[in-house]
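Journal club side-thread
Mid-discussion, someone asked how the predicted structure for our own chain would compare to the paper's figures. Pasting it here so we can look after the session.
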Amino acid sequence: MKSVTVGSATLDIIASVASDDIERMTLHNSTNSFLLLEPGRKVDADSVTTHVGGGAINAAVSMARLGFDVATLVKLGRDHNAEKILARLWEEGISTDLIRVSDDHATAISVMIASHDKNAAIFTHRGANGFLSEGDCDATAFDQTDLVYITNLSNDSANRFPGIVQKAKAAGAFVATNPGIRQLSRKTSPFLENLGHVDLFTCNLEEARALIPALVDKTGWERQTADREGDTGPVIEMEGFRLSVSDLCRRLHELGPGHIALTDGGHGAYLSVRGILHFQEAMKVEVVGTAGAGDAFASTLAACLVRGDAPDAAMKHAARNAASVIGHVDAQTGLLRARDLS
C-alpha cells in the first residue's frame, strides 16, 4: 500500500541529564513542572546525541517499517542537516521525490533536554518547516495514494492544511491528521471547517481541550456537564465547558471524521468509530524518552486501519509501537516492523 506523510522534518539534538544534576520545580496548585537552568553554569549530561526527527519523518519511518510504500512531503534547507535527513530516508527506503527545498530558510532543528520523568523540554527552530507553499502541495503528490497522513503544520505551512486535505480526499485517499497544539489553537477555524475531508483525527487530551471553546462557538452548544447517561471516558474541561471523551467525539463526528482518536499518555487511549468508543490501556514500559510516542501511536493506528485491521487490533498495535518508542531516547529507534507488532 502507498502512503504520503506531510509535515515537519527536523534534526534533533537530545541531551539526557541525570535527575541529580538538574533541579525540577513542581507547582503545588498545578500539574506543571519545570526544569531549572542556572545562567552561566555548565550542566553535566549523561549523553548528547543527534537524531533525525519531525512528525512527518517519524510517521514515514513508522509506516515504511510496517510495509508501506512511503513518500514524505516536507521542506528542507540547503544545508548539512538536510543531507542527514535525506540519508536517513534513503536508509529506510522512503521516497524523497516529494521533498521540497528552500533557498531562504534553514532545515529545522530542535534541542531536547530529557531528565526526571524523561518528558523532554524542547527548544525548536522551525526553519523551512514553516514555509510550505501552495505549489509545494500540488494535487499530483497524492495520486494513487491509499493513505495521506498530515502531521503538525507550523507557521505559514498551517495555511496549507485546507488545500492538502481537500486534494488528498479528492484523490481517493484515506486522510489522517495528527496536528499539534499550535495549529489547533492558532488556526482553529480553518482546521474545524475542513474536518469533513478527514477520515481519522488524532490528538491528545491537552490538544482536545484547546479545541473546546472553538467547537462551542462554532456550533452554539450550551454549557453543560458531562454526566449524561452513556457518556464514558474522562471529563475534559475548558472555560466552563465539561465534555466527556465520548461526547467530544460525537460532536467531532458531526463535523465529518468517521474515526476520532484521543490519547491520554500513561492512562491509555480512546478511539471512536462512528460513535462506538474503544479503549486501549497503555502498555507498561520503562520510560527512557517520550519524544515520538504520539507520532508512533497515531501513524501506526492510521496504517493499521487502512490495511483493514479491526479497531481494537489497530489500537493494540498502535499502543505497542508507542511503548517500544518510549523505551528509547529518540523517536525512531524503537519503531517496530510489521512482524514484531504481532
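Post-session note: The longest strand covers residues 10-16.
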